[in-house]
Amino acid sequence: MAGVLGVVLVLSGAAMVVAGYAISAHRARSAADLAAVSGAAAAALGEDGCHQAGRTAARNGARVLSCDRVGDQIDFVVTVRVAVAVRRPLPGLPRRTEAEAHAGSVPR
Asked: Of all helices (H) and strands (E), which one includes residue 27?
């Protein structure tokens, strides 16, 4: 019985670690999407899209690793790469997850 309980505890711990990394990855993707869209919206208004993307990422618990705006004022794409820290990383595993998103102008 003690052996079965030990296996259950180890499997539960492993599931918690996997779930923590999955949550961090989802948070990174969401923050990247929101940052790219807000950056594209700011760029459409003639503002600095990457600055706005950084502000939006920070509000969502992420840090911008890179931001690029390609194109002109009418036809452009903003690409944002963000990182989100894993809340309880294990030694030997990554301490952050990263995601990238693109957003741009919409033809009328």
From this structure: helix 2-44
Paired sense of beta strands 76-85 and 96-104, if any:
antiparallel
Please give the average pLDDT of every successive group of 10 residues along the chain, which has 108 residues. 86 87 94 95 90 95 93 86 89 92 79
Least Cα distance to 33 among 85, 81, 86, 87 occurs for 81
pTM: 0.83
- DSSP letter at 65? E
Angle, helices 2-44/49-59, rounded to nearest 10 degrees: 150
The residue ranges of every structural domain in the chain are 2-104
Beta bridge partners of 91: none
As beta bridge partners, residue 63 has 83
